[in-house]
Amino acid sequence: MATTHSPFPLQPFSIEDTMRACEGTVITGALRDSPLRVLVRNAEGMYEVVPYAGQPYMAISYCWPAAGFQKLGSSNEPTPVLTADGPIVQSYHFSTFISRAAGSWTPSLAVWLDYHCISQDDLEEKTAQVAVMQHIYTKAQITLVMLEDTALTSPELEAVVTSDDTQGHRADPVSAARRVLSARWFSRAWCSQELILSHRVQIYAHSQEGDTVSFPADMFWHCVDKARYRDPSIPVFREPRGRLPDVAVAKTSFAWALAVVRRLGCSDEYDKIALVCNLVRLVYHFSSRPTAFNLHSPAIHLNVLKMVNVIALRRRDFSLLLANHGRGNPLRGQYGFGWAGEAIEGDRFSELWKKEGYQGDRDPDIALHDTGLVARGCLTRIAVEYSWEIYRDGPCLQLKLNGATHLLTTSAGADPHASWTWTYDARQLRDLMLALSLASAAGDSGVSRHARIVFAYLLEEDYERQPEPTSGDLAAVAQSYLSHRISLRDIAAAMAFVWREPCRAMFSTIAIEEGSVLLVSGNASGGLAGRLLFQPYVIRPRLFSPPMLLTANSMVLESDPLPTGAHCCVGCVRGLGMIPDSPGYGSLTMRIA
């Protein structure tokens, strides 16, 4: 059955619209997982489109010709191609620059290039081939990346292809890195996917002398590393660098895949849904996927985000529920989608989500309905909230508790061990421990208890229920840790969610109805006291333990339900501690709008 399109791809989707747009079939073997066609040289030396018969091939990763895309030199010259149905065409997709590169690499290898190897007039074929794109690139012997708008100087090429100990005095890795990374190819979402899926990559560009230059992707990433040592503003590429490393194989969550493609360009923004599916190795045939070619709007961006959340949840991938607390989450408070998340750059907890670490088996029936999410979990009411803000200004640490300011001159105490200054994470944990010790001596017994419990969370990384408050002089306890080499690296990294910027943290400590104290930070607007806190089983850790299970995400709900019986989710938080799974608080089913 041919794929049809959503009738309103430019309008904001409701939850019902989104579920309808996500309808489709998971393919588990019935769909061909290899190319349909490849380009080979015939007896006359012309490239010809032929059916794929299992022959080894190279894949081409390039940017399609488009208005405003200024290609250089031989990239503007076409290559004659004998098409599958007979006519010879002059192909600007398979430019002279690309065909020469393919021929110079290994002439006997077939070539896979999407424009000629997928029928552009057959929507069903295009849909099927996009669904297995991950197989096409992973099965290629090599992927050739074509930077058709980039010309390197001789010193820039020297910086890429020479090592540190042999690099000439003219070589400038900063200039080389910036030149290559400015290519249009690096801004395109499809290209990012192709890079991640490829086992081996060779990069081709022009030289300013008019020649073709090439180098292995690994060599270029080494140049980028050298450049970033000199200039930290050089962009960081978080994912595979010309081959598929073990860490990329380990990352298969929707949160990770969405983080890869979300800020990159696509001619059709809805293509990002197919890209995400490819990256998580999901072969999916949509019954009615929307399209919006060369159209961009906030509504389309949100529709894509909504669809990715729905597909992930239906696949029982709950990684985006671990990323719903982000302060920039555009779905926060949106009716029907208050539970949903947006990928958070570099967030290892959501990106490395694995179902084995969470209590998903306690809720096999989690589902979507016409007002949002239906899930089982633990529910409580927030009784008391203290708001905290920590800010460092040189030697002074400023703490605001419910708006009241307290100051600590850290230079007055003993100097910490040097290891507490080596990383952002260590410095931030140091300041958090100092602020907690300051609060414990502020004279308010409620604040002191909260501070001591949070301190205990930091020290006792392996727990199921709230640990006992840290006793004694908290300043002395803090100093006993700070005076030695840092031993709390896992929790230091885990606490990144409370820091709004390198020197400023904002969070709340809350006492819940049962009596436990939790630390939380996220995007819930307004005060938390009096509202409901819900922890779905599917994202509730089985046991807090380092290095990956140190925090828990929760949803903040309005206390009064809507007429439909659903509760509005006003925001989400990440924190330390869990709601006790005890009678009256656990095994409750909630409808969340």
TrEMBL record:
<feature type="domain" description="Heterokaryon incompatibility">
    <location>
        <begin position="57"/>
        <end position="194"/>
    </location>
</feature>
<protein>
    <recommendedName>
        <fullName>Heterokaryon incompatibility domain-containing protein</fullName>
    </recommendedName>
</protein>
<dbReference type="InterPro" id="IPR052895">
    <property type="entry name" value="HetReg/Transcr_Mod"/>
</dbReference>
<dbReference type="Pfam" id="PF06985">
    <property type="entry name" value="HET"/>
</dbReference>
<dbReference type="InterPro" id="IPR010730">
    <property type="entry name" value="HET"/>
</dbReference>
